[in-house]
Amino acid sequence: MGFQAEKQVVRNFYHALDQAAVAEVPTVMAQHCSPDLLWRGFHPFGEIRGAEDVGAQFWVPLRQNLTRLQRRIDVFFAGQNRYDDPGGVWVCSMGHLMGLHDGPWLGIRPTRKMAFLRYCAFHRVEGGRITETAMYFDIPHLMLQAGLQPFPVETGAQLVQPGPMTHDGLLFAAQPEEEGTRTLAAIEAMIADLGQWDSKMALEEELARTWHDDMIWWGPSGIGATYTIERYAKQHSGPFRAAFTERSKTGHLCRMAEGHYGGFFGWPNFTARHTGGFMGMPATGKTGEFRVIDIYRRHEDKLAENWIFIDLLHFWHQQGVDILGRTTGIEQP
Fold first, then answer.
1. CATH class of 177-329
2. In what side-by-side order are the strands of the sheet with 287-290?
3. Which of 33, 72, 220, 309 has its CA 20 to 30 A from that of 163?
4. What confidence tens digit (pLDDT) does each residue in 103-160 have?
């Protein structure tokens, strides 16, 4: 089964959107997306219904404030949703939106310098149009580039994140079906081991079953990136598991793979109760949602790289902390 037609729909959409004048964006959205498009984005956007409304509420303000916008794609693939969803073909792209930070998008002070908005998007394509989108983007990363400090010191590394080490993430051409099957199997084995954090194995032993030892976990700003199983266990996975209890089962709206790449997203992926310190913040005892996109690169039969997008602003808002409002509000007169 090939997904070339669906890929071309998304590529045509990106080309038209990126070339359009700001005032033309809602029209471009209407031309390439269904009128009742369901769009999911990170806090403070949430769900938006309607192609033109997505253009007006998200893309126009972004383009007005992050000017001369370029789309720099590092990973692009498509696949059949592995859940019971006849005809559910999705196309994924991941990378950065780069521009000149000339205006106060979401109240984030402009620097008049180049800035990168880290993003990942899943698009469902039906009948030659985009009918559903999950577009997750790292707003805290943009805040840090503007000199703001939304979170305490990270356990991982803060940096502009590159694409795959192998530089082969743009799957514009059709891929062997068996490679996508192997990638999806590796992802699902990892999810099965993860469970609800109840494998009874030592953490590094558990991780070594499905990850290469020199794995790279490209985490979101506020947590940071980490390299090797040993450092990932110490700098993220261990502290994260220690901070939460009552983790729900994993639930995804889409999970797919093509070639050596695959990923998933949920709304939310899981819930957990915050009973220990996390990201330098004290426990609240409250249950929170984790809205996440994960993108993976497989090497042989294990996972080698993982790019993660977590709506930390939404999570902390549920805990009673308005990170975006608090941080940008410091500079208001």
1. alpha beta
2. 244-245, 270-274, 287-290
3. 33
4. 999 999 999 999 999 999 999 999 999 999 999 999 999 999 999 999 988 999 999 9
**Partners of 4 in the beta sheet?**
none
In this predicted structure, the answer to whether residue 333 has a pLDDT above a threshold of 50 is no
Output the CA torsion 194→169→63→146 (10° steps).
Answer: 60
Per-residue tokens: 103: 């205006």
CATH 3.10.450.50 positions along the chain are: 4-145, 177-329
Answer whether 0.70 is exceeded by the pTM: yes
d(Cα 187, Cα 209) in Å, to the nearest integer?
A: 12
Which listed CATH number (3.40.1190.20, 3.90.1720.10, 1.25.40.10, 3.10.450.50) goes with 4-145?
A: 3.10.450.50
Cα separation, 188 vs 265, in Å, equals 13
* Beta-strand pair 211-218/302-310: parallel
Q: What pLDDT sits at residue 195?
A: 77
Q: Which residue has the higher pLDDT, 86 or 245?
A: 245
Closest CA to 35 of 22, 44, 26, 43: 26
- Helix (H/G/I), strand (E/B), else coil: 75: strand
What stretch of H or E contains 63? helix 60-65
CA distance 177 to 185: 13
Q: Identify the DSSP state of 237.
A: I
Render pLDDT for 211-231 as a digit per residue (tens, 0 to 9): 999 999 999 999 999 999 999
Q: pLDDT by residue (tens digit) across 5-37?
A: 999 999 999 999 999 999 999 999 999 999 999
**Tokens at residue 133, please?**
């989108």
* 263 and 121 Cβ atoms separated by less than 8 Å: no
Q: What band does 184 get if pLDDT is binned at 50, 70 and 90?
A: very high
- For 303, the 3-state DSSP assignment is strand
3-state secondary structure (DSSP) of residue 35: strand
